[in-house]
Amino acid sequence: MTFSKNDFCNFSEQYFKQAGCFDIPCGFQDLNPDLFVIIGALVGDALSGKLPFNVQNAVGNWLELVGQMILTYNAQQQYLQSGPGLPYSPTNKNISNMFCTQNEKKELVSSVKELQKQLEKMKKEMEKMKK
User: Fold this and answer.
1) CA 4/CA 74 separation, integer angstroms
2) Which of 43, 78, 83, 100 has the greatest CB tally within 10 Å of its CB?
3) C-beta atoms surrounding 105 within 10 Å
4) Hey, is 47 helix, strand or coil?
């Protein structure tokens, strides 16, 4: 099965297991958090200038309600699944995604380095035994 970032048809659990490191279709995983906030501020500013103040209040409060519901649900789900988590850093991308091959590569590199250390230690011990 081939996957692309434009595959909108299948959001099953199997899709994400096989998709590995792909972000959700039209996702924003690589978007810097600061830029994400700035985009939201610009959109909010552009919309609020074109609405009467009573409509701004109604729409703004409704959007906050939707956002708070999503945030509360997501925060509890994330905390339940992952515990407290790590601070933001580009090096932490996909760090807890067990289906991502990037994580497997990191583990392999770590294992190879550990094996190299053990090999060097064994070589030194063999040299000592020869003497």
Assistant:
1) 25
2) 100
3) 10
4) helix
Which is more confidently placed, 111 or 10? 111
Is residue 10 pLDDT above 80, yes or no?
Answer: no
Taking all residues of the chain, what is their mean pLDDT, rounded to a whole number?
A: 79
Closest CA to 7 of 28, 21, 23, 29: 23
Q: How far apart are the first and last CA of the chain?
A: 58
Asked whether 78 and 85 are in contact (CB, 8 A), the reply is yes
Rounded mean pLDDT of 41-49? Answer: 90
Q: Are 23 and 7 in contact (CB under 8 A)?
A: no
pTM strictly above 0.70: no
Two tokens, residue 117: 């250390």
